[in-house]
């Protein structure tokens, strides 16, 4: 009797387990049926990408499907990325139990992420990025212990940033950015032993950045900024991430000083900390980042001078320090940086002269030093190499001539040097440069006549020359230039005898080319707006 009871109990226990497993794992469909279910859930296939998915052919030949011939032709990869598909992802995807790679990126798929994906126990790569998936992160996906890549970038996911992803021990790449996740970055995010890429940027996160982030010693890329609103500053433990190559903590309300520990990141090539509330001096240890190529610390409240340690940044191509509270001279070594392409220091309180070596490396593309208190002359070789596209020195105390070399700078697109004390003549050929769209030289002490030119650039849309001491007449070609209209609005310094009686740019050309009598302060009333 006792044996019978024992056997009965064992039978009941078995039935309970069997029922539980059956509920957790619904009957598995044949793989071709599961694929057809996925197709049925697609409501729009504008490129007919799934037209080959029909029972008349083997599912292993269907577009986007990869089978493993060594494993009874089981489906091991499904790639439907970039097909502009609409609809939902069928829960029957969970029947593809041998999948290693599931990618449906760059479509218009919506609805919740099917928790049945958790049934694909060997899945290594899951990319659902650039869709419209919504709802919260399915906790059951934490069962994917073999998963190495999880990419949910740019969807409409909500709820707290999922702590359960920390239970996926083999993750190498985790992208949760571009969603509507809220809450804090959990300290459990410091658990991963192999993680190389972590992005939580572009969400609605708050709280402090946990120091446990510093435990991710294999991390190479870290993105935590944009639309997040953290409290406090950059944790000193960030200095433990010695494999880090890219660090982006821009636009997320960080405060405090830049920690000196950041100087330990010897492999770092990109540092973006712009649009925060960082204060204090420029950390001298930033100069130890000898691999650094791009550094953007703009739009903060940093103060003091550019430290001499920055002279060691020999690989720097981009340096943005604009909109801070920096002062002192721009160090001469800035002009000697061999790789520098972009230098933006505008809206600070820099004084002294512009480093005369700027541009001699032949690589300078963008230089903006506007709204400072700089004096002295312009560097002579800013367009060496013919790569300079944008030159802005607006609103300083610069004097001396405009370098003649700028009249031969065929790469030049914009030149804004108004509100200084520049003198001498406008370089010959400047207005004929083929890429030129904007010239602002107003409010200087320029003299002489309009420079000789065979033609005015067809791209030139604005010329501002007002409040100078220019004389003579304008060339006939100015009347056929698109800049004709903008020449009106910028109050040219060229005088006129009388307004033309007829409309049109040709009349305007005759009007502004007249003999010197008085300054022009308004356009001719009859001028055609299409000029």
Automatic annotation (TrEMBL):
Q: Could you say which residues form the signal peptide?
A: 1-22
> A Pfam family this protein belongs to?
LRR_14
> What are the protein's UniProt keywords?
Glycoprotein, Leucine-rich repeat, Membrane, Repeat, Signal, Transmembrane, Transmembrane helix
- Whose protein is this, by species? Liquidambar formosana (Formosan gum)
Q: Which InterPro entries does this UniProt record tie to the protein? A: Leu-rich_rpt, Leu-rich_rpt_typical-subtyp, LRR_dom_sf, LRR_N_plant-typ, LRR_R13L4/SHOC2-like, LRRC69/RLP
| Main localization of the protein described in the UniProt heading | membrane
Instruction: Identify the residues that the record assigns to the Disease resistance R13L4/SHOC-2-like LRR domain, covering every copy.
Output: 167-276
Q: Does the keyword Cell inner membrane apply?
A: no
Q: What is this protein called?
A: Leucine-rich repeat-containing N-terminal plant-type domain-containing protein
Q: Where is the Leucine-rich repeat-containing N-terminal plant-type domain?
A: 31-68
Q: Where in the cell is it found?
A: Membrane
Q: Which GO terms describe its cellular component?
A: membrane
Gene3D superfamilies membership: Ribonuclease Inhibitor
């Amino acid at each position: 009797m006792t044996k019978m009871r024992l056997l009965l109990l064992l039978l009941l226990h078995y039935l309970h387990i069997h029922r539980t497993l059956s509920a957790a794992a619904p009957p598995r469909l044949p793989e071709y049926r599961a694929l057809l279910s996925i197709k049925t859930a697609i409501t729009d296939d504008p490129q007919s990408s799934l037209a080959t998915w029909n029972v008349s052919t083997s599912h292993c030949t269907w577009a986007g499907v990869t089978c493993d011939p060594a494993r009874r032709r089981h489906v091991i990869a499904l790639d439907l990325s970039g097909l502009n598909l609409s609809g939902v992802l069928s829960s029957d995807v969970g029947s593809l139990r041998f999948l290693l790679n599931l990618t449906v990126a760059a479509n218009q798929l919506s609805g919740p992420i099917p928790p049945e994906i958790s049934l694909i126990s060997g899945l290594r790569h899951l990319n659902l990025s650039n869709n419209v998936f919504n709802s919260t992160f399915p906790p059951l996906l934490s069962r994917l212990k073999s998963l190495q890549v999880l990419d949910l970038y740019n969807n409409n996911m909500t709820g707290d940033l999922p702590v359960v992803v920390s239970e996926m021990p083999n993750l190498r790449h985790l992208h949760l950015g571009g969603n509507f996740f809220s809450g804090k970055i959990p300290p459990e995010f410091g658990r991963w032993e192999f993680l190389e890429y972590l992005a939580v940027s572009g969400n609605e996160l708050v709280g402090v950045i946990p120091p446990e982030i510093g435990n991710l010693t294999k991390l190479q890329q870290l993105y935590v900024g944009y639309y997040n609103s953290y409290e406090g500053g950059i944790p000193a433990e960030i200095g433990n991430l010695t494999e880090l190559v890219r660090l982006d903590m821009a636009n997320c309300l960080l405060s405090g000083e830049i920690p000196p520990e950041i100087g330990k990141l010897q492999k770092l090539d990109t540092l973006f900390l712009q649009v925060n509330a960082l204060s204090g001096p420029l950390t001298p240890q930033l100069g130890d980042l000898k691999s650094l190529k791009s550094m953007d610390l703009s739009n903060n409240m940093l103060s003091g001078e550019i430290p001499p340690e920055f002279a060691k940044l020999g690989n720097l191509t981009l340096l943005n320090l604009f909109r801070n509270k920096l002062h002192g001279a721009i160090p001469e070594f800035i002009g000697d940086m061999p790789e520098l392409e972009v230098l933006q220091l505008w809206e600070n309180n820099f004084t002294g002269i512009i480093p005369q070596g700027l541009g001699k490396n032949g690589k300078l593309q963008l230089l903006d030093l506007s709204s400072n208190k700089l004096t002295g002359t312009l560097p002579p070789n800013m367009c060496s190499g013919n790569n300079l596209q944008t030159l802005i020195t607006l609103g300083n105390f610069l004097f001396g001539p405009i370098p003649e070399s700028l009249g031969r700078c065929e790469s030049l697109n914009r030149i804004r040097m108004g509100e200084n004390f520049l003198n001498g003549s406008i370089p010959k050929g400047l207005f004929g440069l083929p890429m030129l769209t904007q010239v602002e030289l107003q409010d200087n002490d320029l003299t002489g006549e309009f420079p000789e030119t065979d033609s005015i650039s067809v791209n030139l849309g604005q010329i501002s020359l007002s409040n100078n001491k220019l004389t003579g007449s304008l060339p006939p070609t100015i009347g056929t230039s698109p800049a004709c209209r903008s020449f009106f609005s910028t109050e040219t310094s060229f005088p006129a005898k009388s307004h033309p009686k007829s409309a049109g740019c040709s009349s305007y050309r005759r009007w502004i080319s007249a003999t010197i009598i008085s300054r022009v302060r308004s356009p001719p009333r009859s001028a055609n707006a299409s000029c």
